[in-house]
């Protein structure tokens, strides 16, 4: 069985590449971590602002729902107020904690 010239050259090239030592061009660990750190720091302010905006929308919706329940004569609105207020407080604190965690 005869091999064509293309197959011979491909096999020779594969053997040459396998035998010769190639140097890997990779980043060291510190450079990669610093690059990830700077990339994440760019998103801290937009994420914090987004949390505050979502908290504002949740607060408005919660206020309207509590108002409707209160006007309909429902006597047990304390649980509703605590639930909506707690969710708004959580969203406000998440934005602050994210900024404090990344030191921005």
TrEMBL record:
Q: Which residues form a coiled coil?
A: none
Show the InterPro entries listed in the entry.
DUF4134
Q: In the UniProt record, does the keyword Nucleus occur?
A: no
Manganese recorded as keyword:
no
Print the keywords alphabetically. Answer: Membrane, Plasmid, Signal, Transmembrane, Transmembrane helix
Q: Where is the signal peptide?
A: 1-26
Provide the transmembrane region boundaries: 50-68, 80-102
Q: What is this protein called?
A: DUF4134 domain-containing protein
């Amino acid at each position: 069985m005869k091999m064509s010239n293309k197959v011979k050259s491909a096999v020779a090239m594969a053997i040459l590449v396998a035998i010769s030592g190639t140097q890997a061009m990779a980043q060291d660990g510190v450079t990669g971590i610093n690059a990830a750190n700077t990339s994440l720091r760019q998103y801290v302010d937009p994420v914090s602002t987004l949390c505050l905006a979502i908290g504002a929308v949740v607060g408005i919706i919660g206020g309207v729902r509590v108002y409707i329940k209160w006007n309909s004569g429902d006597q047990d609105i304390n649980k509703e107020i605590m639930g909506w207020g707690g969710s708004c407080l959580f969203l406000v604190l998440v934005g602050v904690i994210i900024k404090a965690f990344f030191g921005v």
